[in-house]
Amino acid sequence: MNYLIKKLYPYFKNKKYDIFYTEFKVSVEEYIKITLEYSLITFILAFLSLTFIFIFILRFYNIILFLVSLGFGIIVGALTFIYFYFYPSMAKADYVKDIEDNLPFFALYFYSYSGSGMNIIDIFRLLNKEKRFGAINKEISYFLVLIDVFGYDLLSALLELANKTPSEKFKEFLFGLISVIRSGGSLRDYAKIYAKEQIEDYEIQL
Asked: What is the value of pTM for the model shown?
């Protein structure tokens, strides 16, 4: 197993960060191991299932049908391997879509809170309690961990989140927020313009 993992690592290493968006959240090596294990399991199950059908249901079995069962198992195992290979990229794409589908509603709520005089950290805390923004809530939770656990200041936490998020649209929002803070601009005006743009984009897509 370790030999195969080392051989496959160069083909999986570019998925290091994408694996984070799957339910596994493991290292590349562990993910390769999981991929191989699932591929082997599906190979065995497919092979045994077809063999069972031939022997106990059709009551006929020979070397040709054995090879058919073996080939079926290999195909199913290979398809499982291919699925696991592309799964992190698909999971990341779904995560990005979830962020961007919820962005217009997040922007409206952010705008509504920005006029109350609250600071950005408190706005994010309130938005995170809403639990209605899908993957954006995960992004905000990460931001709050940076603040509360690791002691980041506001700008550093926003910059870290902006560099980490896979969504270009959310990244754009965060960098805009950083720019407003650094320049001393109006948070409410920025939030208003951004929310208007997001709602207009949303209406176009309907």
From this structure: 0.88
